[in-house]
Amino acid sequence: MEDDYAHPYEDSIEKFTTYEDYLDSQITPQDRFYLEEDELARQLVEIGCRKGEVLTREDFAARREAAENAKKARLQNAPKVLASAQKNLTDFPVLRHLACREELVRSGKLSTIIFIRDKNHRGQEISGYIDYGHRLKTENFEPYFDRKKRLLPKSSDLSFYNWDTQHSTSNESPNFQILPDHEQGLLFKNKRDRKVISVDPRSEPGDNSKRLEVPTTEYIQVVIFDHMTRKKS
């Protein structure tokens, strides 16, 4: 091996899957010509028969782990593109209201329940309460904001009722627990701060909660319940 050959360590550590791959990157064509065996060439590189820095096996493993952790951190901290980004929703008030809440709901700062009453593809009237945050996590919302799909309640949502068949369902979600009430009908308890949200139009929605009926021709009726979540101390 030629001692006067310096192979600077410039490549990213992530480029090498194994320590042997890293050692191979330090072997020159001349090394292979004179030594004829890669294994011997690797050993000579590993024990320091090369000018410049050569990582030990332990240092390589530590640097690779650090590089992988840094990459994960970058990915986690990278700004996420919202499903509603760059969508023209001027003429669609329901979608516009959902778009302006998307980032807050995804971050957990806001919990939103959407009441929708409309007709399904069979022409049957349906209604239900949707946990917007749960749907955002489990569905791709771009087709909704692109108006390729219509947001409608499902039997898997917080509540669902088919007015024609009288079929009804109710389900807890990761964000809300359902509390049936004989006087106020459905109540939803936020699992983060334990505050109760009333959806009865005759009563106040509750602490840190607001009720907004959206004037729209997109649906028969849409009501949005916003709850600013505060973690219980």
From TrEMBL:
Name the InterPro entries for this protein: DUF4464
Report the locations given in the UniProt record. Answer: Cytoplasm; Nucleus
Quote the Pfam families the UniProt record gives.
DUF4464 (PF14713)
Swiss-Prot/TrEMBL keywords:
Cell projection, Cilium, Cytoplasm, Flagellum, Nucleus
Q: Does the keyword Oxidoreductase apply?
A: no
> Does this entry carry the keyword Transmembrane helix?
no
Function, in words: May be involved in spermatogenesis.
Q: What is this protein called?
A: Cilia- and flagella-associated protein 299
Q: Which organism is it from?
A: Durusdinium trenchii
Q: In the record, what lineage is assigned to the organism producing the protein?
A: Eukaryota, Sar, Alveolata, Dinophyceae, Suessiales
